[in-house]
Automatic annotation (TrEMBL):
Transmembrane segments: none annotated. SUPFAM superfamilies: Thioredoxin-like (SSF52833). Signal peptide: none annotated. This is Sucraseferredoxin-like protein. It holds the Pfam family Suc_Fer-like. InterPro entries: Aim32/Apd1-like, Thioredoxin-like_sf.
Length: 104
């Protein structure tokens, strides 16, 4: 991953181009759709990250900052681990033979 987007001194259009280029450069067989969200409950300054998997599970994170994104991608999307400090809810998080939410 590159530097945090807020550290780049670029226009919003350049930011979108930067994001698109990074996603295309790192494209593999597994893909994630990333879309903007203006507000999903909570405080207006609480970042929100909603992740749904093809298996039907979903995890909802709140108070997400740009600095949390790399950890969310590496741990939740790639490794399937829930990050308890950010967890606000979800769907089908508990599965048979899983000892905790971290094993979804």
């Amino acid at each position: 991953m590159g530097p945090p987007l807020e550290d780049l001194d670029i226009t919003p259009e350049q930011r979108e181009e930067n994001i698109s280029a990074q996603l295309k450069d790192s494209a593999e067989s597994k893909r994630a759709l990333i879309v903007k969200v203006s507000h999903v409950g909570g405080h207006k300054y609480a970042g929100n990250c909603i992740i749904y998997t093809p298996s039907g599970s979903g995890v909802w994170y709140g108070r997400v900052t740009p600095h949390d994104i790399e950890s969310i991608v590496e741990n939740t999307i790639v490794k399937g681990l829930v990050l308890p400090p950010l967890l606000r809810g979800g769907l089908n998080l508990s599965k048979p033979n899983c000892k905790s939410l971290n094993d979804w």
